[in-house]
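Bug #77: duplicate submission created two jobs. Keeping one. Sequence:
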Amino acid sequence: MFGSNNGKDSKDKSKKSPLAGNAKSSNLLVRGTTVEGNILTETDIRLDGKMTGKLSSKGKVIIGPSGEMNGDIDCQNAVIEGHFNGNLLVHELLMVKETAHVEGDVRTNKLVVQSGSVFNVSCGMGKAVSRKGGKRESVELEELGQVVQKSA
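Kept job's structure:
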């Protein structure tokens, strides 16, 4: 009845709890949640509530349609459907959906902005996006400088 293992041996302890973290885990800040401060995560995070502060993720950051972020984001990829105001550093792909309202300073490698979105930003793009303080470093110029030095 209750707690029965149907004759199976309960010695198999290798199964992880559904609450245990794994490579496919992600974080979620739901509507009605307000966070003030800093978040550092190794995995993806979805924001449907409100956040003020700094958010750093080695994965994807998704700001849902009801999400609001005021502050700094540093991440691999980002999808913005809600409101963002601040400094945004995306090392790979930034997707701005038609429901998005984005203001501030944006640095990204690749950018997709859908029609209907509000995108009032200072934007820098290219392969040379670094994690150093949100500043963009130009690999192309560095390589060009090395070529000039070798030919001199």
